[in-house]
Amino acid sequence: MSTLTQQEFCITLSDLAAFLEMNPAEVKKKAESILGKKLKTPLHSTWLMPEEARRIVLAQGYKYPKKVISIQMLKGGVAKTTSVLNMGLRAAMYGARVLFIDLDQQANLSFALGVEDESLPVWVDIVEKKKSIEECVRFIEPHVDLIPSSLNNSVLDRVLMNSNRNWAQAVKAPLEKIQHRYDLILIDTAPALSATNTAVTIASDEVILPVNPDKFAFLGLQKNLSELEDIKEDFELSFTNKILFTKFDGRENASHELLQKCIESFEGHLMKGYIRTSSEVKNSVRSGKSLFSGKSSVKADYDFVTREMLGFC
Ligand SMILES: Nc1ncnc2c1ncn2[C@@H]1O[C@H](COP(=O)(O)OP(=O)(O)O)[C@@H](O)[C@H]1O
Ligand SMILES: [Mg+2]
């Protein structure tokens, strides 16, 4: 069982009403008729379980996408893990069925979800055929599962390179067995151009590249994008690339300059939403907390990009 609180995997009726652009009283009536039970007021403290939110969202005509999305960037510290964690949890709150896969041996995503156990099976055990993918899946909360990582995955790249089997399929092939259970499969990766990340790309329908206004950010982004283009060509893939601007600071020139450069260079690929910098986010992943348990202003930013990821806006 995870350390998540109700605020981190359930949604309030008032948040759901805001998303559906419906009057809260109207949503309450509708929800009561769909769920067949009376709901309490006030609506901002009436929590819906993911399955309940799902039934209401589906009744409004929304459809959940079925996608494998990886978050990649060869630079560390660009908010890959923070973004995977918060977008995945928020998507589950909206009723999506989410599987997180941690493929970074630093295992920050696993820690954030309360899984810190070196003896648990991880991806390298699947590749070496010691475990089945089903045995690696941990239940976190309703609608949220995790295949954790640990330092044991640090040999994964070497294992892939020495393998006689088709290493390029080492993520995609096992996933095919359990993919039907989820809407979104979100893969967090290590900051590297590696065989593991190539196998992740081959399994991805979409790759999100977070970029933050740091020295070398633009260079790193260009290098990563050109690597992805090569993989796309070599393996005849058709995944899409999206760039997510993170740690945007409206008071700093560097943020405006990089944003401008990204708009000019990658217009169609830049996500509409972006993430502002906030001191409340610092170390949130390390402390095992998602943003949805606090009052951070960045919560609204992750809410927006989650809807964008779900195709809900
Ligand atoms: N919007 C933000 N504002 C301020 N700090 C952030 C923000 N997003 C992430 N951080 C911090 O930046 C650091 C790196 O984030 P992390 O998600 O671990 O990056 P990565 O996975 O790319 O290495 C962490 O300390 C995290 O708390
Ligand atoms: Mg990380």
TrEMBL record:
<dbReference type="Pfam" id="PF13614">
    <property type="entry name" value="AAA_31"/>
</dbReference>
<dbReference type="InterPro" id="IPR025669">
    <property type="entry name" value="AAA_dom"/>
</dbReference>
<feature type="domain" description="AAA">
    <location>
        <begin position="67"/>
        <end position="235"/>
    </location>
</feature>
<protein>
    <submittedName>
        <fullName>ParA family protein</fullName>
    </submittedName>
</protein>
<dbReference type="InterPro" id="IPR027417">
    <property type="entry name" value="P-loop_NTPase"/>
</dbReference>
<dbReference type="InterPro" id="IPR050678">
    <property type="entry name" value="DNA_Partitioning_ATPase"/>
</dbReference>
